[in-house]
Amino acid sequence: MKKERKYIGVKDLILGVLLSCVVLVLFFVVSPLLQPLGVHVSLILAVVIPAIIGGSVYLLLINKSPRTGTIFVFCLPFALMFMITGTVATPIMYLLCGIIGELIMLGGGWQTKWCGVIPYCLFWLVSSFGSLVSMLIMPESSVKAFMGMGMDQTTAQTMFETSLATFTDPVFITVQAVSAIAAAILGYFIGTKTLLKHFKGAVVA
């Protein structure tokens, strides 16, 4: 009888990156389309929609590759993308999310039906508040990022202050956090129902 591998291999790595990129593209495609709805609504829905739709993609990954390293690989493309944009704090948060997710899944997490939802919720919380953390830790870098969009320094500074005020509003933070967690759980639940018949005996069975 062939022994089941505990750690991801090359095929798992490729699969994880590809499926994560599907969610990544969805995340960046949805955001601009929601801007006419207003700052608060668009920021919340920019996480809620990908979290719900991406739940099935995430379930597909952890069922096809229920091994150590899978959660980290799922977070990796997001970390690299935000690193390319010039931010530092957000990529670090995604990498930490991957590490914490791996620790959560140790000790039988892969055999537990709902254990996998915890890293998924954490992932979308990072997606919700990564920009805020970057602004708080590295304000100068955030201003430069706005200037990189074609703004002069005064306009960039004003945009930074406006964005920071929006992100730090207590009501907005609460709604954003609750929405992200609820959307992640809903997406995960939909994923279990969608993929249950295809993966008998796996995580969702």
Brief summary of the model shown:
The protein has eight helices and no strands.
Would you mind describing this structure in some detail?
With 205 residues, the protein is mainly α. The C terminus is likely disordered. Helices cover 75% and strands 0% of the residues. The chain has eight helices and no strands.
Topology, element by element:
Layout: H1 10-34, H2 39-64, H3 70-84, H4 89-105, H5 117-137, H6 139-147, H7 153-167, H8 170-195
Helix pairs in contact: 1-2, 1-3, 2-5, 2-8, 3-4, 4-5, 5-6, 5-8, 6-7
- Spell out the helices and strands N to C: HHHHHHHH
Number of helices: 8
Average pLDDT works out at 83
Could you say which overall geometry the principal axes of the C-alpha atoms support?
globular
Q: In terms of per-residue confidence, which ranges show pLDDT below 50 for 5 or more consecutive residues?
A: 201-205
What is the radius of gyration computed over CA atoms, rounded to a whole number of angstroms? 18 Å
Report the sheet with the most strands, covering strand number, pairing sense and barrel closure.
none
Q: Into which percentage range does the β-strand content fall?
A: under 5%
Alpha-beta content class:
mainly alpha
Total beta strand runs: 0
Q: How much helix, percentage-wise, in residues?
A: over 70%
Q: Compute the separation of the termini in Å.
A: 22 Å
